[in-house]
Write a structure and sequence with these properties.
Largest sheet: 7 strands, mixed
Strand order of the largest sheet: 12-13-14-11-10-16-17
Structural class: alpha/beta
Distance between the termini: 86 Å
Radius of gyration: 27 Å
Number of helices: 18
Low-confidence stretches: none
Number of strands: 20
Bound molecules: nicotinamide-adenine-dinucleotide
Mean pLDDT: 95
Strand content: 15-25%
C-alpha cells in the first residue's frame, strides 16, 4: 500500500461524520505541506468512546493474560508485516530521519513481548506473611485489579512509543485504553488502532480521540487512570483537572539532562555519546543530553572531538530520507524555543562552534548546534531546549560538575563518564535524577524494560517500565482469608470490658516489648 492510499484509508477512520466539526491540519515538518486533516473529538464524543470501551472491558479482563496475549501478539505480527508503511507515515508526520522513525516500531515489538511475558508475573497475587503472629491464622495477599479504562495523553516527539507504547502494559493488565495523541502527530497511531479494530478484529478495548486541550481534559474527566507525557506546564493542568474526580495519574514531564565528564574519562567515547545523546531524534527527547559539564584538564580535547562529530552529521531530506542523521523539527513552536535559546546564549557571550541557524527553504529545520563556554545565566543551561542543541561548560572538578548538574528544577536523566566505573557510580548516586547512566546513555536504561523510568522534581510523578509501570494501571486489593476455622467472636470485638481490655493490653505488651521482664510486665 502506498503512503497516499494509507492516508486515504486513515482519513476514513480519523474523520468523524459529525458536522460542523472542528478539524486540525497535520503538517509535514520537512516542507510544511498539509498531510492530512483530522476531526477534533469534542467532550461528548470522548465520553461516548470511553463508555463504549468501558462496556467491553469486563470481557477483556475475563479472557485472562493468555487471551490478551493472543491479541497483542497478533498486533505485534501485524506491525512486523507493515513496518515500512508505518515508518513512511511516521517520517511524514514527524520529520524524523528513517533510523529514528524505525525506533518507534522496534520499541512496540519489544514492549509487547516484554509485557506479555513479565506483566502477568508483576501482577500475580503477592502473599504477605502477617508480622503479627496472632494474624498468621489468616492468609494475606495483594491482588492487582485493572482500572477499567486507562487514558493515555501523549506528546509529539515519539508518537507511538509514548502513546501505544505506554498503553501496552494497561492492555496487558486488563484495562481498556483510550489514547489522545498529540495534535501534531496523530496519524501513525490512528493507523495502528485502525488495524487493531478492522484488520485484526480485536476486542473493542482500544481507541483514539483526537484534539487539543479540550479533548485531553475530557479524557481526564472520563477515565479511571491517566498516563500523561508532555510538558511540565500541561502536566500541572492535567493534575489539577484530575483532582476534580480524584483520578490517579502518572506524569512524565520535561527534562534538562546533564552529562558529567570526569578528567579520567574516555574522552572519545564521551564525545561520541554527547553527540548521539544530544542529537538523536533531532534532540527532541525528554532524556536528551542538553548540558555537558567537562572537567577542565580535558575540556579542550572534548570540545574539539564533539565539534568534529557534530560537523560530520548529515541533516536533511534526501528524497527517501534513509541516510540522513538529523531530521526536521516536529513542532514549529518548539523550533522558536530552540532559536530563542541559541540567540540568548549568543547574546550572553557563549560561542556557537557549529550550527546555530534555521535551515534554508520551507519546513521546520534547525541545524545541529554546539554551544561552548555556556554558563547558568543562559536559557540553554536552565530551560528545556528540546531541539538539536548541545551546550558545554567547563567545570573545575567533578564536585563542581555534579553541583552544576543538580542546579536545575528538573530531574529526569543524566549521564556520567569517568575512567573508573566505581567513581562513576559514586558521582551518579549524587545526581538528582530518575535515570542515570555511567559511561553510557539513557537509551540503555530505557532499553532495560525491567527498570523503572520516571522523573524527580519537576520532571514528573510515577514511573513507566518495571513492576511500577504496570501496577500503576491497577487498583490494589488487600485480601485476607482465614486459614483455620474462626471463633464466633474475637477478643478485640465488642463488648469492651475491663477484663478484655486487660487481655488485649497484655498481648500487645508481650508481642512488642523487648526483654522478658518487660514483656511480662515485671
Ligand atoms: P504538551 O504538554 O504541550 O502536550 C502533551 C499532550 O497534552 C498533547 O497531546 C496535548 O494535546 C495535550 N494537552 C494539551 N493541553 C491539555 C490539557 N489542558 N489537558 C489535557 N491534555 C492537554 O507537550 P508536547 O509539546 O506535546 O511535548 C513536549 C514535552 O513533553 C516536553 O516538555 C518533553 O520533555 C515532554 N516529554 C516528556 C517525556 C518523559 O517521559 N518524561 C517524554 C517525552 C516528552
Amino acid at each position: 500500500m502506498t503512503l497516499g492510499e494509507a492516508r486515504a484509508r486513515l482519513m476514513s477512520t480519523v474523520t468523524a461524520p459529525a458536522a460542523p466539526a472542528a478539524t486540525i491540519d497535520v503538517r509535514k515538518p520537512v516542507d510544511g505541506s498539509v498531510l492530512a486533516t483530522v476531526t477534533v473529538d469534542p467532550p461528548e464524543r470522548v465520553a461516548e468512546v470511553v463508555d463504549r470501551v468501558r462496556a467491553a472491558q469486563p470481557g477483556w479482563e475475563a479472557i485472562g493474560a493468555d487471551g490478551r496475549r493472543h491479541w497483542l501478539e497478533r498486533l505485534r505480527d501485524w506491525i512486523l508485516a507493515n513496518q515500512d508503511r508505518l515508518d513512511d507515515l511516521m517520517q511524514a508526520e514527524s520529520g524524523k530521519v528513517r533510523a529514528d522513525a524505525a525506533l518507534e516500531c522496534f520499541y512496540l515489538l519489544e514492549a509487547i513481548n516484554f509485557w506479555c511475558e513479565r506483566g502477568p508475573r508483576y501482577l500475580a497475587d503477592e502473599k504477605i506473611t502477617p508480622h503479627n503472629p496472632l494474624l498468621r491464622t489468616r492468609s494475606a495477599k495483594i491482588v492487582y485489579t485493572p482500572h477499567p479504562v486507562a487514558g493515555v495523553i501523549s506528546p509529539w516527539n515519539f508518537p507511538l512509543i509514548l502513546s501505544l507504547g505506554d498503553g501496552i502494559p494497561a492492555l496487558v493488565a486488563g484495562c481498556a485504553l483510550v489514547i489522545k495523541p498529540s495534535e501534531l502527530t496523530p496519524l501513525t497511531l490512528a493507523e495502528l488502532v485502525r488495524a487493531w479494530r478492522e484488520e485484526l478484529g480485536a476486542p473493542d478495548v482500544l481507541d483514539v480521540v483526537n484534539g487539543t486541550g479540550e479533548t485531553g481534559g475530557a479524557l481526564v474527566d472520563e477515565c479511571d487512570f491517566i498516563q500523561f507525557t508532555g510538558s511540565e506546564r500541561t502536566g500541572k493542568v492535567v493534575m489539577k483537572r484530575a483532582a476534580d474526580t480524584l483520578t490517579p495519574l502518572s506524569l512524565e514531564l520535561g527534562g534538562k539532562d546533564p552529562m558529567v565528564v570526569a578528567r579520567d574519562a574516555d574522552v572519545e567515547r564521551a564525545a561520541n555519546a554527547a553527540c548521539f545523546g544530544g542529537l538523536l531524534n533531532t534532540g527532541q527527547i525528554c532524556l536528551s543530553i542538553e548540558r555537558v559539564y567537562v572537567e577542565e584538564p580535558i575540556y579542550d580535547e572534548f570540545v574539539e572531538r564533539l565539534r568534529a562529530n557534530v560537523e560530520r552529521l548529515r541533516q536533511g531530506d534526501d528524497g527517501r530520507r534513509y541516510e540522513a542523521d538529523v531530521g526536521a523539527m516536529t513542532s514549529p513552536a518548539q523550533l522558536e524555543v530552540v532559536a530563542e535559546h541559541v540567540e540568548d546564549a549568543r547574546r550572553a557571550g557563549a560561542r556557537i562552534l557549529t550550527g546555530g541557524r534555521r535551515g534554508d527553504g520551507p519546513g521546520d529545520w534547525y541545524e545541529p548546534t554546539l554551544i561552548v563556554d555556556a554558563d547558568h545565566s543562559m536559557k540553554v543551561m536552565r530551560e528545556e531546549t528540546f531541539g538539536p542543541v548541545i551546550a558545554v561548560m567547563k567545570a573545575s572538578d567533578a564536585d563542581e560538575a555534579v553541583r552544576l548538574a543538580n542546579d536545575t528544577r528538573y530531574g529526569l536523566g543524566a549521564a556520567v563518564f569517568a575512567g573508573d566505573p566505581a567513581e562513576g557510580e559514586r558521582l551518579a548516586r549524587r545526581i538528582e535524577a530518575g535515570t542515570v547512566a555511567v559511561n553510557d546513555l539513557y537509551m540503555t536504561n530505557y532499553g532495560v524494560l525491567g527498570l523503572p523510568m520516571g522523573g524527580w522534581k519537576a520532571s514528573g510523578i510515577g514511573y513507566r517500565h518495571g513492576a511500577a509501570g504496570i501496577r500503576k494501571f491497577c487498583r490494589v486489593e488487600s485480601l485476607t482469608i482465614p486459614r483455620i476455622p474462626q471463633p464466633k467472636s474475637e477478643v478485640f470485638w465488642f463488648p469492651y470490658t475491663p477484663r478484655r481490655r486487660g487481655i488485649v493490653r497484655r498481648i500487645y505488651r508481650f508481642m512488642n516489648a523487648r526483654g522478658w521482664r518487660r514483656r511480662l510486665g515485671l
